[in-house]
Specification:
The complex is a heterodimer of chains A (about 475) and B (about 475). With about 475 residues, chain A is α/β, with parallel strands linked by helices. In chain A, about 40% of the residues lie in helices and about 15% in strands. Chain A has one domain: Amidase signature (AS) domain (Amidase signature (AS) enzymes), CATH 3.90.1300.10. Chain A contains 15 helices and eleven strands. Chain B has three domains: about 290 residues, no CATH class; about 100 residues, no CATH class; about 55 residues, Arc Repressor Mutant, subunit A, CATH 1.10.10. In chain B, strands 2-5-6-9-1-10-11-12-13 form a nine-stranded mixed beta sheet. A three-stranded antiparallel beta sheet of chain B has the order 4-3-14, with no helix packed on it. A two-stranded antiparallel sheet of chain B has the order 7-8. Classes of the chains: A alpha/beta (about 475), B alpha+beta (about 475). At the A-B interface, helix 9 and helix 10 of A face loops of B.
Chain lengths: ~475, ~475
């Protein structure tokens, strides 16, 4: 009997290597768990019945193109769209023998922080199904927590891997921009989108990162990536941890979240880390505002291809422009429409310099501010999300309140930096996430620090109600 | 005011389709032909998640062209997105260099009888072409009112260089000379076939007029759909005339786009803007900047052939400007030089090559054999010369078999035929005697016809002239 709730990917790999189970049996165990629990949680938009490959099964966020398997990005406009090609990350998983269990739910075009913006209905948090799993990658995060997948891939534009990992109590890495190919991943905001792993622990996360990371000739923005080292050490001796004041004292951080993060920082000190305070004033003050200019601007252009001409939904009309209008009106939900309008406005003649251009300049300042902090520190820490998982519907009617969920994850995304969420305790019975931010290409350091902390924290990633 | 009181001001936008093996941003074949939508892939069809990759050869060729146009080569050029909706634009945006193009501030010196005309090159930038739309129904051939639009994406994503000249062209003749020179430059670089009829070279003209001597720039109109150099010249002339008439009747020119209709030689204003004006340009985040290394630029500069303009000036000294232009822009000046070097008369060789070998691949011709034909051009029958010239670019062509034939120069043999022709054409004879000496050619032609091309043309014309004294 395979306990998918507890089984880590590394343990599953051990079972496969010892031939204690077959990949098909593993796959079936996850399908069984999905049959049992996904009716309530709705992590998956579709599952794959036959295991293809001899490795550890994996869940893929539905923004990742999978050859022959419908890929909708959580949108009606892509209903029925079956890619004729694999995204590079999907191809790398396939090459590594990882069978795809299924495609996981996401906010439409990865736009959202709760997965409530999926055109196919929300995903529920395994710790408390009346609450959201975070977003946009709520499907993958909830699936990993609920034992419906040992690991999965998400995409992160402003926090869509880290924030749901925090709210679901698992480990999620948003890698350095350019380390993982975006080829074949449905684009939201190209200069920010990154693909990354979600898993039950840091070592699993590192293993999956090693499979998907690396330069890709099909994505010009990718770079060579240092060899991934699986973390072993349990000490943090010599690690210089910076605690950005603004990111730890920001308005809206729940006291229970602060307390859990403080305890983790204390623990880090006990493990030998040097802890000091630092400042990122502009990053926090302007990060969110700049993000909501740059991301919608790029999105307004990236989503222009959904015109009903070649694939996906088409609503007929008498003229070409009539057909495009009706298709886009029927196919896009409110959030993509909102961002297309915002972005179109920000790029309009006469406004470009004041909005998009200015936001790009501030983005440079944010990167410089982080670089200055990394002259004194190896890693910066803060809560990943200001709050624990909130209730479904709680913020759905207030886009601004929803946008604030990503207040603390956005600045490092804007700077192209890697960030790791490590669960660090509970507040009111719900997981709290600790965000570790490193300089570019410092994933190995983040894995080491996250692994040591994870060991010391002893967080149990299985939701209490499922134990 | 009269026409002479107005000066045309013309700037040209030229699109050149590069003949790279693959498309601009994907590996699909960049070739014409093939069934519709067979040379496509997720990238050039704009499928979700597909990303562009810059064709390195296309960048090199753009730099090469920029160097040939005496441009500054940007060490940092950036692709941008030009956003608009159209069925032939699968991504909803065209990837094109915008505020940071690969080549800026160039110059083309166009040799003219009044000296070199300097035409500025504002920029030359790289972009991808749209697919090909065919609008069905509606009767206008445009998307407005069409019931169906068919799109062939084979052309979508092929590499284009757009060259923008300064408003430095002041006559249709200037425009034609400039385009001929530019085309020849492009062809010699080997980067495009640059054929207007096939659409691998496309020219739009921005036309305005101003009072002669003024340096103001008035409202301009854009002319499109002119698919030959002759039509470009005609279009410019028609537009200049139209604008002068408007100003002279006290009106004002309204900025509009006109399509040139070759059949009637007239301009038709496009009814309405079908595309939004605001393209919402921003830097393409899926691509990194184009930064050609200085060594590459220098290597390409060193590889540049001698420019057509310089060759025209050099050859002009041995012939005259018109002949030099025809030889160089026809790509036949090297053949001419080699033929002269092989002993042919300069002028005779130039006339024969320019008049009889247009469109022939000059490199395929053996200049020594051609020189023999030049030397014998009047001695051998015209039919023999025609046959020889038709074969001259074939491998292994030898002139000798044709030289063995002799044209009929014997007056005794020719005289009766000449007499017959003159008798049969009393009207022309009278006209000739009345001063229309151009009719000489007509009489010679008739005699040639009668003799099956075997008569010596010079002997015939001397005979005719003598008889009509």
């Amino acid at each position: 009997m395979i306990d998918t709730l507890r089984l880590t990917a590394e343990e599953a790999l051990g079972l496969l290597e010892r031939k204690a189970v077959s990949s098909a049996e593993l796959h079936q165990a996850y399908l069984n768990a999905i049959g049992e629990r996904d009716g309530e949680l709705h992590c998956y938009l579709r599952t794959v019945e036959e295991a293809e490959g001899d490795g550890v099964p994996i869940a893929l966020k539905d923004v990742i193109s999978t050859k022959g398997l419908e890929t909708t990005a959580g949108s009606k406009i892509l209903a029925g769209y079956v890619p004729v090609f694999d995204a590079t990350v999907a191809a790398r998983c396939r090459a590594a023998g990882l069978p795809v269990i299924g495609k996981t739910n996401t906010d439409e075009f990865a736009m959202g922080s709760s997965t409530e913006n999926s055109a196919y209905g929300p995903t529920h948090n395994p710790w408390d199904p009346t609450r959201v799993p975070g977003g946009s990658g709520g499907g993958t995060a909830a699936a990993v927590s609920a034992g419906l997948a040992p690991w999965g891939l998400g995409s992160d534009t402003g926090g869509s891997i880290k924030q749901p990992s925090a709210l679901c109590g698992n480990v999620g890495l948003r890698p350095t921009y350019g380390t993982v190919s975006r080829y074949g991943v449905v684009a939201f905001a190209s200069s920010l989108d990154q693909i990354g792993p979600v898993a039950k622990n840091v070592r699993d996360c590192a293993r999956l990162y090693a499979i998907v990371a690396g330069k890709d000739p099909a994505d010009s923005t990718t770079v060579d990536v240092p060899a991934v080292e699986l973390p072993e050490a349990e000490s943090l001796a010599g690690l210089r941890i910076g605690v950005p004041k603004e990111m730890n004292e920001a308005e809206g951080i729940e006291p229970g979240v602060s307390a859990a993060v403080q305890r983790a920082i204390e623990l880090a000190r006990e493990l030998g880390a040097e802890v000091g305070e630092c400042e990122l004033p502009r990053s926090v003050e302007y990060g969110l505002a700049c993000y909501y200019l740059i991301a919608p601007a790029e999105a307004s252009s990236n989503l222009a291809r959904y015109d009903g001409v070649r694939y996906g939904l088409r609503v007929d009309a008498d003229t070409y422009y009539g057909m495009v209008e009706r298709t886009r009106d029927a196919g896009f939900g409110d959030e993509p429409k909102r961002r297309i309008m915002l972005g179109t406005y920000a790029l309009s003649a006469g406004y470009y310099d004041a909005y998009y251009g200015q936001a790009q300049r501030v983005r440079t300042l944010i990167a410089q501010e982080h670089a200055a902090a990394f002259e004194r520190f190896d890693v910066l820490v803060s809560p990943t999300s200001p709050t624990v998982a909130f209730r479904l519907g709680e913020k759905a009617a207030d886009p601004l309140a929803m946008y604030l969920s990503d207040l603390l994850t956005i600045p490092s995304c804007m700077a192209g930096l890697p960030g790791l969420n490590v669960p660090c305790g509970l507040s009111d019975g719900l997981p709290v996430g600790l965000q570790l931010i490193g300089p570019q290409l410092s994933e190995n350091m983040l894995f080491r620090a996250g692994h040591a902390l994870e060991r010391a924290l002893g967080f149990d990633p299985v939701p209490e109600r499922l134990r | 005011m009269s026409t002479a009181a107005w000066e045309p001001v013309v700037g040209l936008e030229i699109h050149v389709q590069l003949k790279t093996r693959t498309k601009m941003f994907c590996r699909c074949s960049n070739g014409f032909g093939g069934d519709p939508n067979t040379q496509t892939c997720p990238v050039c069809l704009g499928f979700p998640g597909a990303l562009p990759i810059v064709n390195r050869r296309a960048v090199e060729w753009t730099v090469k062209l920029g160097l040939a146009l005496d441009c500054e080569i940007a060490s940092h050029a950036v692709f941008a997105r030009k956003n608009y909706f159209y069925p032939d634009l699968p991504k909803g945006y065209q990837i094109s260099q915008y505020d940071l193009p690969s080549c800026i501030n160039g110059t083309v010196l166009v040799p003219t009888p009044e000296g070199d005309h300097e035409i500025g090159i504002v920029r030359a930038h790289l972009e991808e072409d749209a697919a090909k739309s065919t609008h069905i129904g509606g009767g206008t051939g445009r998307i407005g009112g069409a019931s169906t639009t068919l799109v062939d994406f084979n052309r979508g994503g092929t590499p284009l260089v757009e060259i923008v000249s300064g408003p430095d062209i002041h006559s249709s003749e200037d425009a034609r000379r400039f385009l001929q020179l530019l085309r020849q430059t492009i062809v010699e670089l080997g980067i495009s076939d640059a054929e207007m009829e096939k659409g691998t070279l496309r020219v739009d003209a921005n036309v305005s007029v101003r009072p002669a001597g003024s340096d103001e720039l008035r409202t301009r109109c854009e002319l499109k759909n002119m698919n030959s150099f002759r039509f470009v010249a005609q279009g410019i002339e028609a537009e200049v005339t139209r604008q002068i008439a408007i100003y002279e009747s006290g009106g004002a020119v309204v900025q509009e786009t006109y399509d040139f209709d070759a059949a009637s030689g007239t301009l038709t204003a496009r009814r309405s803007k079908e595309e939004a004006d605001d393209y919402r340009y921003f830097p393409e985040p899926d691509l990194v900047p184009v930064e050609p290394p200085a060594e590459l630029v220098e290597r390409l500069r060193a590889e540049l052939p001698e420019s057509p303009a310089r060759r025209i000036r050099r050859i002009e000294r041995e012939l005259d400007l018109d002949r030099a232009v025809v030889l160089v822009t026809g790509g036949l000046d090297r053949l001419w030089q080699a033929t002269v070097a092989a002993g042919a008369d300069r002028i005779a060789a130039s006339n024969l090559i320019a008049n009889r070998l247009a469109g022939v691949d000059g490199d395929a011709v053996d200049p020594a054999e051609l020189a023999k034909l030049v030397e014998a051009r009047e001695r051998i029958p015209r039919t023999a010369l025609d046959e020889a010239l038709a074969q001259v670019a074939e491998p292994g062509f030898a002139a000798d078999p044709y030289l063995a034939q002799e044209a009929v120069s014997d007056a005794a043999e020719l005289e009766p035929i000449v007499d017959r022709i003159l008798e049969a054409n009393p009207g022309q004879v009278a006209a000739y005697r009345g001063g229309k000496e151009g009719l000489l050619g007509y009489f010679v032609g008739q005699v040639m016809k009668e003799t099956g091309g075997k008569a010596n043309a010079r002997a015939v014309s001397e005979l005719v002239r003598g008889k009509l004294l």
